[in-house]
């Protein structure tokens, strides 16, 4: 047992403060997944044949000069801190650069709406867009009137048209259709004056969508027909039925679909309508409309959207039934990942697992099951997550899944499950950082005995793989302790090390010295 805490020398308070701050954020630099190079398939390294004996902390491989003498944790921390402060010339990149930062381009009304206005002679106020966009939806009448006055004072007709469009879009987002329509009409009158300005066609696209969103499909088509770029015009016409569907007038939306001459464009428009319906919890109607989609791949994409909405709504069984209608699942990694998260997130793990046999190829099945396991681990369910990992057929994917599951469990506060997952890893280079993170988690829980055991295991894995220990976080894990107080607990620097702790401290100091 360490001796009772002793008073630190005057002038060394900075060290205690630094270590306290370190422990407060213990392991923050390792909260993400294991390094990407460790997790990529084929990027793992096989264990070194030089296995360390259990319970023995080996010395670092390279010969080094004799270590500085130290007696207390305080002195050890100071030496570690000095060893960690490498000269700037040794770091790969200077800490600060004399090069001036690149100036950001001012935010204009057009840029916020996705328009590329170029270098116009007359810039609008950089903060104007967020000001009137927010006030249009949530501001008081007086504030809104003041914003309108600013918009009306914009001298450039194109920029003023953009501003009116932004106001209308903000109101439409709040379903304030009656308030939005006058500003659309006012802005649309300005469009002929901005015909020669940059971004005019994109502005026509936005106005057409906004008119459709307000329920005025005829005006939307009229504006869309003014777009000279054929691809953008087609894209705009395809978007109109989906915007109309958002108003609840599905019949009008479907009537506009029939006016689109190209069959593939019809299919894309129908897909947008089905997505709007699915997001409005009208999934059964959306499913019936997919039967009218003639392009097979577009129909599958429409079904993907419906499946994800069903899964989010907790309708896992129906979602699985629809998944069975989608072919070539192995070509849809984004969809499968989203599906795994949605099904697991709504408590439908069994349905998530039933998707796996529908996927062609063991590699694609393995990747999907890894996503399921990660989603389960993110909920802190270590036993279930590890059971899913065991179902992964491909060996290297299973190894990567164990590392990612361990990381997710640590993030969820499940250090015990994370340790089990980490100990099942075959390759030491994947183990190292995870073991140090587990030790950090155990330290924060005050489990010193288990922490030391895990640190020793991490050191052995470091030695076998050649991976360097994370010295900065180790300093806090090894040198700080949490003690009970009347107010709760207090974290402070230890007054002494146990023999095992001292042995570890010597190892880490030698590793730090080798970096100098």
Automatic annotation (TrEMBL):
Gene3D superfamilies: Tetratricopeptide repeat domain. Residues 87-100 have a biased composition (Polar residues). It comes from the Bacteria. This is Tetratricopeptide repeat protein. Residues 34-68, 86-106 are annotated as: Disordered.
């Amino acid at each position: 047992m360490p001796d009772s805490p002793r008073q630190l020398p005057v002038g060394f308070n900075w060290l205690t403060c630094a270590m306290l701050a370190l422990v407060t954020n213990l392991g923050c630099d390792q909260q993400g997944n294991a390094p990407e190079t460790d997790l990529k398939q084929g990027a793992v390294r096989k264990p070194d044949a030089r296995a360390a004996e259990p319970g023995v902390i080996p010395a670092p491989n390279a010969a080094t000069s004799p270590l500085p003498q130290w007696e207390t944790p305080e002195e050890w921390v100071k030496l570690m801190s000095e060893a960690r402060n490498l000269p700037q010339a040794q770091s790969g990149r200077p800490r600060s650069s004399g090069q001036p930062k690149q100036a950001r381009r001012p935010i204009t009304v057009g840029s916020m709406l996705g328009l590329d206005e170029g270098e116009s002679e007359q810039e609008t106020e950089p903060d104007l867009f967020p000001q009137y966009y927010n006030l249009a939806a949530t501001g008081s009448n007086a504030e809104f009137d003041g914003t309108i006055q600013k918009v009306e004072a914009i001298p450039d007709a194109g920029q003023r048209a953009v501003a009116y469009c932004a106001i209308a879009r903000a109101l439409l987002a709040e379903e304030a259709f009656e308030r939005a329509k006058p500003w659309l009409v006012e802005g649309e009158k300005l469009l002929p004056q901005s015909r020669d300005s940059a971004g005019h066609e994109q502005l026509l696209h936005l106005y057409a969508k906004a008119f459709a969103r307000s329920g005025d499909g005829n005006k939307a088509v009229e504006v869309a027909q003014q777009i000279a770029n054929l691809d953008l015009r087609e894209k705009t016409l395809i978007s109109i039925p989906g915007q109309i569907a958002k108003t609840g007038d599905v019949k009008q939306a479907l009537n506009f679909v029939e006016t689109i001459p190209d069959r593939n464009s019809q299919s894309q428009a129908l897909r947008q309508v089905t997505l709007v319906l699915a997001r409005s919890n009208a999934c059964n109607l959306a499913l019936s409309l997919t039967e009218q989609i003639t392009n097979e791949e577009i129909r599958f994409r429409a079904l993907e959207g419906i499946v994800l909405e069903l899964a989010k709504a907790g309708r896992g069984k129906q979602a699985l039934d629809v998944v069975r209608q989608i072919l070539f699942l192995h070509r849809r990694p984004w969809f499968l990942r989203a599906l795994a998260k949605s099904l697991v997130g709504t408590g439908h793990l069994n349905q998530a697992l039933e998707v796996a046999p529908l996927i062609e190829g063991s590699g694609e099945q393995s990747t999907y099951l890894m996503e399921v396991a990660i989603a389960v681990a993110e909920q802190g369910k270590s036993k279930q997550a590890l059971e899913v990992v065991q179902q992964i057929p491909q060996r290297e994917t299973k190894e990567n899944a164990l590392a990612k599951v361990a990381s997710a469990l640590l993030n969820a506060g499940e250090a015990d499950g994370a340790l089990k997952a980490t100990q099942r890893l075959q390759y030491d280079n994947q183990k190292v950082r995870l073991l140090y993170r587990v030790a950090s988690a155990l330290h924060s829980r005050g489990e010193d005995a288990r922490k030391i055991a895990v640190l020793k295991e991490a050191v052995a894995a470091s030695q076998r793989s050649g991976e360097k220990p994370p010295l900065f976080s180790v300093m806090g894990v090894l040198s700080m302790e949490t003690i009970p107080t009347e107010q709760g607990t207090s974290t402070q620097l230890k007054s002494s090390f146990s023999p095992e702790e001292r042995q570890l401290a010597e190892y880490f100091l030698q590793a730090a010295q080798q970096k100098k």
